[in-house]
Amino acid sequence: MKKIIRLTEADLTRLVKRIIKEQGQEKNFSKCAKNYVKYLFTPSVMRLDQQGEEIVAGGGELFFWNNNKIPTINNREAYDRFIEFLKKAIESQYVDPDDDCGDLTFEDVEPFIKEFYLDAINQARGDKMSIDLVRKKPSKINNMFDNVMDDPENNPSNFSDEFEYADNIISYVFDKLFNNADISEKDEEKIKDFFKEEYGDAIFERYRSEVGDNEFEF
């Protein structure tokens, strides 16, 4: 015969509060794990001391566990160093990237760590790969700039000045090159700055050759 357990309204209230609290804790565990990983992947800022030795002057903790270098995905030794450093950091509360994370243990955040660790590597290496891609294909990019500037829709007379023209040309080339790829805002800014340095003069020259210098006439 089944045993029937009768719950009062107060019992139900306590049960609901307990479930909500546990769900909230799990969410905090995930948030703390992500913050820990982010901080340990942040490069340390280095400087030379009076003896000419390199020391850590600020920044994150990347120097301490991997000599300020982003590891590769399959580098098991780097992952082991990361875990060992993270354990000590949490136990000693040496690293507390969030005020709500100080009373957590490594076991609390352990289920989330590997996923965030791999995400951090992919993010860091994805940014580097995209800027390297741009630098290694100059002929392809040269042709893309020529094609975009030759497009009648991008006639310089359609723009208010050479700066608006240049910004639009660079944005069109960027969109064509990466074709809606998942590029971080930081990396997008780096690539567009590279385009400005490499192609800015040529874009301005194209504008001025067809529209003329944008100067006041009296």
How would you portray this structure in words?
- It is a single chain.
- This protein is mainly alpha-helical.
- It folds into two domains: 18-125, no CATH class; 137-211, no CATH class.
- It contains seven helices and two strands.
- The chain has helices spanning 9-40, 62-66, 76-92, 106-136, 138-150, 162-178, 185-211; strands spanning 44-48, 54-59.
- It has a two-stranded antiparallel sheet.
- Strand 1 and strand 2 form a beta hairpin.
- The relative contact order is 0.09.
- The mean pLDDT is 81.
What's the number of structural domains?
2
Rg from Cα: 27 Å
Number of helices: 7
Q: Calculate the mean pLDDT score and round it.
A: 81
- How would you write the strand order of the largest sheet? 1-2
Structural class: mainly alpha
- The global form is elongated
Taken as a percent bin, the fraction of beta residues is 5-15%
Helix and strand string, N-terminal first? HEEHHHHHH
How is the main sheet built? 2 strands, antiparallel
Q: Give the end-to-end Cα distance, rounded to a whole number of Å.
A: 103 Å
As a percent range, the share of helical residues equals: 55-70%
Uncertain parts:
none
Number of strands: 2
Give me the secondary-structure topology:
Blueprint: H1 9-40, E1 44-48, E2 54-59, H2 62-66, H3 76-92, H4 106-136, H5 138-150, H6 162-178, H7 185-211
Antiparallel strand pairs: 1-2
Helix pairs in contact: 1-4, 4-7, 5-6, 6-7
What structural keywords apply?
2 domains; 218 residues; two-stranded antiparallel ribbon; mainly alpha; 2 strands
Write a brief structural summary.
The protein is mostly helical and about 220 residues long. The chain is about 65% helix and about 5% strand.
